[in-house]
Amino acid sequence: MNIKIIYEDDDVLVVDKPAGIVVFPEKPTRSDLVDKTLIYYLIEKYPKLVDVGRPPRYGIVHRLDKDTSGILLVAKNNETLIFFQNQFKNRGVEKKYIALVTGTIKEEKRVIETLIGRSPSDPRKQKAYLLQGLTPQYLQNTPQNKRLAITEYKVLRRFEKYTLLEVKIKTGRKHQIRCHLAYIHHPIAGDKMYGFKDSPLPEGLNRQFLHASYTKIQLPSGRTKEFSSELPEELSIILERLKIKD
Length: 246
Fold this sequence. Notes:
Structural class: alpha+beta
Number of strands: 10
Number of helices: 5
Distance between the termini: 42 Å
Mean pLDDT: 91
Strand content: 25-35%
Order of helices and strands: EEHEHEEEHEEHEEH
C-alpha cells in the first residue's frame, strides 16, 4: 500500500488518503484486515501507534469514508490525540472538501443545519431531521442519537448536469456531507449509498466525488498549521470531460 505522508513531526502524521481504503475496521483487530485498512498499514510502519488510543482506531483522530480521499490526521501519542479531539469537539478545526454534486445548485452559498441520526429504514445510512416544527409523531420516530450537524458550501463551478462545490463542515458527524447534500436533493456524484435511482453519473467515475482538500489545526507545539491535498488525478480527469454550463 503506497500512502503519501504530507507532514510528520513527533506528535502527528498528516496522511493523504487514497480512495478505496477503509481507515480502520468497525470491529476490533482481525488478521484478515491487516492489508486492507489504513491503520494497520500505519502500525506496520509506525509500531508505537498501538500504544495510542484504543483499538481499532488507535491514533486516528477523525475518519474518512472508504471512497473519500484526502487529508487524515493521526496522533502519534495519547496527549496529542486528546489535544486534537478537544479541538474537534470545540469546533476549532477548519476542514474543506471538494465535492461534485448532481444537478444545478441555484444558491452561490448556503448553510445546511439539521439534526443527523441513523436512518430507521437503513442502519448503514444517516438521515437529516428538521430542527424546528417537529410534530410529536415525528419526534417519536426520530432516533435518540440524533445530533446537530452544520455544513456550509459555496459553488466553485457549474456544469450542465453537475455543480462543483467547496464544502466546510462545522461539525463532524458520520456521513455528514453525503447525507446533507442528498437532503437538499443534490447527492454527490457516484455516491452509491446516498445517490438517487435517477442520478446521472459522469463517464469513468468509479467512486464518490468527495475529497478532503484542506485542514487548518493547532498543533500541540502551539503553532497553527494548514495542510492541503490536490484533487486526485482520477477526479481531475472527470472534471475535464464535463461540459461547462453556459
